[in-house]
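Regression check, adenosine monophosphate case 496:
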Amino acid sequence: MWPFTSSSALKKSSAPVFFTNTLSGKKEVFVPIAPGFATMYSCGPTVYSEAHIGNMRTYVMADGIARVLKSAGYRVRRVLNITDVGHLVNDGDTGEDKMEIGSKAEGIRASDIAHKYAARAIADMELLGMDTKDMLFPFATHYIQEQIAFIEALEKKGFTYRIKDGVYFNTSKFAGYGKLGRGKEQRIIEGSAETLAARIPQSFARIEKNDQKIHEADFALWKFSPLGIVRQQEWPSPWGRGFPGWHIECSAMSKALLGKEIDIHTGGIDLISIHHNNEIAQSEGVFGKAFVRYWMHSAFLNIGEDKISKSLGNSVTVSEVIARGYSPLTIRYFFLQAHYRSPLSFTWESMHASSEALTRLWRLAKEIKEESKEIPANSEIRDRVITHLRDDLGTPQALALLWETVRDEDLSPKVKWGVILAVDEVFGLSLSNPPSTRGALTPEDLPEAIAHLAREREAARTNKDFARSDELRIHIENSGYAVEDSAGGQLIRRVR
Ligand code: AMP
Ligand code: ZN
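Current build output:
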């Protein structure tokens, strides 16, 4: 049986929530397929190397959407897929499979690479306070038969053709192909329809030319293993040995796990023009009805002028942030300061500022928790916070109100506690159970030798190397410091 998330949610009736739908480009009230329930599918990591904090921004957005729905009384059913085959280097139909590249780089099998990086990505999501316990994380390679059956159904309906390197989707057979927009990501970022028009050719320019394709936008559903080459990941199919194209996994797995039609589908804006348009063509082609009600996309996390990306080599990972002595929840705080549809620039200075702000917030929340005796009161501010959060996840507005509230000396602790609880239901920053940071030293305040040991210990904890972590704790303690592991990471205090 599906592990539905919150049983208490059943007792509440669901309240109105608004989301910006990429399909219409407008903010819409959320009307689910089944009253009180929401199904969500999120495009997840391609697990050939470590996920970066740009990927995490998209997952934190999806977590926020699920949390806001739960707080509004919905039961939420979530899938986040793990791509472990078929995603080729240029996001198109040619080039090497990213998994094979990862496997060669590390000298271990593609399936081992997949398990290693999927486990790390999920661990990172949990470190960032994501509620993963009721989510499903299906691997594309576990759904090969479903993908083959999906392609067969498309074939029966006349959407496919076969050329020398694979079976392709004929986009001219699907009326309305590209309805999600081609390059809408640019419109979201720059707010200009002219820029959009100028960008359309570039969206497709990324795809290498395949002379046998009927239309440039056609895409591979099943690729044949190249003659004379045995791939690590290949399967028999009605069309010959090979592997699925990148897009079919999402259509097949969302159908298998959530049904033919789903409420919400999420991803980063880079997925709009090709991957999500192709998912729509596949799913609506087979089932002949709307695939997704609300398409939601997160803007990029950038570094300087560029998006954070594995291929640009400018990745920052959760482990790197932790290794510098910051709580992983600092990353979440940093994300929540911006609206999910606005681009956000990462700098280490911004990480430092977020860390100081979050530490201060935890300190205040702890005091308010004690003063209020954990009795929350309803208030007009609490209602306003909830309204902001239900209005397309207005996290910057909710955060501003939270700061105003905790600093206001005229408000009662119970009112403040009520606001903290309402915010944290969606923020997931451990504000209702704040780690005790009293007396804890920031990485900058620690002597370098201790800060170094602390970084090594955080890295050991992230890698679940608890023996090493205990060894490092003893070293730190022998130097006159106490170590406490909290929801926000390790806290270090001077004891002598
Ligand atoms: P990938 O592992 O490349 O398949 O990407 C996984 C998810 O992360 C997708 O939803 C991407 O759209 C998203 N993503 C990739 N880079 C960024 C970035 N710099 N900022 C925000 N989201 C991103
Ligand atoms: Zn997908």
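Comparison notes: The first helix runs from residue 53 to 71. The two ends are 54 Å apart (CA to CA). No diff flagged against the previous build.
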